Amino acid sequence: MNDILARRARRATVGIALSAALVAGIAPVTAIAAETSSPTGAVALQTEDAAAAKEKAYAAMQEALKNLEAAKVAASPEKLAAIDDDIAAFQEIYDIVAAEAAKRRERLPAMQANVDAAQAKYDEAHSRTSGLQAELDKALEALGDEEPSTATKEHIKQLRREIMSAERREKSCEDDLHSYRRRLESQERQVQDSESEAQEAKAHIDEDIAKRDALLGDLEKAQAAYDDACKAYEEAKAAADKATSPEITKPTETVPPSGSTQPAEATPPVSSPATGKDTLPSSTKQATSSSGKQANTTAGKLANTGDTAPSAIALAGIAAAGLGITATATRRLKNSK
After folding, report:
1. Cβ count within 10 A of residue 292
2. Phi and psi dihedrals of 103, rounded to 5?
3. Residues ≥6 apart with Cβ < 8 Å to 37
4. What letter would DSSP give residue 271?
5. Which of 9, 31, 66, 275 is buried most, with the most CB atoms less than 10 Å from its CB?
6. What is the DSSP letter of 270?
């Protein structure tokens, strides 16, 4: 608001000064140059904005530097070396257990074949036992209430002996089958355990690699952010320096153009009876010369003082002096007539 009021006051002052300068015979370009060459509120505001932008950019650069230092500490060579050591240790474990799992898995097909063979033998022994038992049951059913003959008795005894032998064979085959199955299941569990250990080691390796990559990525991002902040600060600093440079803020000294302060002729030229030519009376010439000199002197003083916006009072004084000189010249001319 103060800047707006100041600009309005300057415009009003320049208006008054221009009016006074016109009355005094001073060219308006002098007052206009004085006004336009002065630092305005807009320039001052631009300078303040540039300084504020510079401070903001500096704060951002410091914050980026702080983040960069923290990223460097987090990704220090010592910490990265420790992570690499963990990766190497878990990699060694993974290689061992993965190789063991692969070796044990190679045995599974042969062990499964043993189980299948034992299962076939057991099935065969069970079938024989079941067949003999069915034959015995049929022989006993055929006897009925009759007394069996000696041959029949011998046949029944033979069947019972074979059944007992078949049952023992079946039991042996069953034991073998269970043994092969237990071995296969144990081998499968060992394979699963080895593979689980390998997976855990691989998970640790992947976690450590991701951690290391994240630290290096954060460091790279922090470095890039700091570089950008430095660049932004340099640009803001250059803009602030340019805004505060003498070429912008130093007012330009105004020099009135040649002949701009010569007042207009107060009276038309008078025909001289002696020469028959139009000549000015001596009193008018003196007044005109005096007025021009005084206006030039006053305008020169204003220009040399470095004032970029001459006050209305000063210009009014110039106008008054010009009016007084002109009036005096007029009176002298009338008296001479």
Report:
1. 17
2. -65, -45
3. 251, 252, 254, 308
4. E
5. 31
6. E
